[in-house]
Design goal:
It is built from four helices and two strands, in the order ααααββ. The protein is mostly helical. It has a two-stranded antiparallel sheet with strand order 1-2. It starts with a helix and ends in an 18-residue tail after the last strand. About 8% of the residues have low confidence.
Length: 116
């Protein structure tokens, strides 16, 4: 293979990597919040409302599929944001809600390691 052919074949991958850079406005592991109009912030606002939200309502608000909504609840809401997510069955449908007032983050915990 010639040098020019190698350059051409490598170029699309380099351009594709730049296109998949992290988007601004998503929840950042550093604790930054999502943009106000983003899908993530809409779902979190729905979950923080007193009425809560069903998976169907979150699917309609975001355009996500059911498994994506469930993954967002487990991966972002519970794990990354450490919000306390609760659910109740109301008239045969499950309603999810984030406990208000408490971010779910543990308070000042002591390390299990012994300091020397």
């Amino acid at each position: 293979m010639s040098k020019s052919a190698k350059k051409r074949s490598a170029a699309p991958y380099a351009a594709g990597a730049a296109a998949k850079a992290p988007q601004q406005g998503t929840v950042d592991p550093k604790g930054e919040k999502a943009e106000p109009g983003s899908k993530q912030s809409r779902v979190i606002a729905m979950l923080q409302s007193p009425a809560g939200a069903t998976i169907a309502a979150m699917m309609q608000a975001t355009g996500w599929q059911q498994h994506s909504v469930r993954g967002f609840l487990a991966g972002v809401v519970r794990k990354r944001l450490r919000l306390k997510l609760g659910s109740k069955k109301v008239d045969g449908t499950r309603v999810y809600r984030v406990a208000s007032g408490d971010s779910g983050k543990p308070g000042a915990r002591r390390s299990k390691r012994q300091s020397s």
